[in-house]
Amino acid sequence: MESFQLENKVAIVTGALGLLGKHHCHALAEAGANVVVCDLNEEQCVQFADLLPTESMGIFLDVTRARSIQNLLDETLKKFGQVDILVNNAAINDMFETPALAAEQSRFENYPLEMWQKSLDVNITGVFLCSQIIGSQMAQQGKGSIINVASTYGIVAPDQSLYRNPDGKQLFYKSPAYPTTKGAVIAFTKFLAAYWGNSGVRVNALSPGGVENGQDEFFVANYSKKTPLGRMARPTDYKGAIVFLASDASSYMTGANLVVDGGWTAW
């Protein structure tokens, strides 16, 4: 099991205060890594970093701003002297403020350009910038592992019937931006893996399935029926995959998309 250990490694996690981000941080720290917890609320990042079992650090990060990412890298190198792992986890998923209007606003025919552009900025440009700035440091070091968090919706199209209540009313449509951006993340992962392969930097994607998080009962039931394992994911179900991709246990793996979805995309 020694190849799974991350002692003396430094891991940066973006979007670290999100549902999965916190579990990614815990998984890496439990394997021995020092974790840099990054998100938009610096105070909460610092507080969360203090709860981790290894020497960790919390810092503000806006993934759409190159200066913010460079500051993150500078502070990481100042404290730890290296960076070994980057988890590009930060992303946005459309939320509609008025539930009564969500179905109409989320229809592709009506989908706002501003929401499309915001998703591109965070979900694609954010991954590009973090990889460019932090990955370049890894390439200079001659080692590193980048993990881009994608989605099953980057592989298959959304089933819009999942968002229909038992009365047959469409509450909203899964909008085009999230699947498009996550598909782009998978393609970008392959590009980077080929580009940095001879620099010792491995780049892989992790495509999680849907995570149960207080959704309506009908949605959880509908989703579970479409999943061979018969349930939605728990937030902890991805901890092993993150450690695997970050560690030497996956040392001959790059350019891959590790799908952990309970079998969702198998049929």
What does this structure look like?
This protein has 267 residues and is of the alpha/beta class. The protein has a single domain (2-98, 120-158, 178-214, 235-260), classed as Rossmann fold (3-Layer(aba) Sandwich), CATH 3.40.50. The chain contains eight helices and seven strands; from the N terminus they run βαβαβαβααβαβααβ. The protein has helices at 19-30, 42-51, 66-80, 99-106, 113-141, 177-196, 217-225, 239-246; strands spanning 10-13, 34-39, 57-60, 85-88, 144-149, 201-208, 257-260. Strands 3-2-1-4-5-6-7 form a seven-stranded parallel β-sheet, sandwiched between helices. Helix 5 (113-141) packs parallel to helix 6. 40% of the residues are buried.
Radius of gyration: 18 Å
Oligomer: single chain
Return the structural class: alpha/beta
CATH superfamily name? NAD(P)-binding Rossmann-like Domain
CATH topology: Rossmann fold
How helical, in percent, are the residues? 40-55%
Shape: globular
* Count of helical regions: 8
Q: How far apart lie the N and C ends?
A: 33 Å
Order of helices and strands: EHEHEHEHHEHEHHE
Count of distinct structural domains: 1
Strands of the biggest beta sheet: in what spatial order? 3-2-1-4-5-6-7
Number of E-state strands = 7
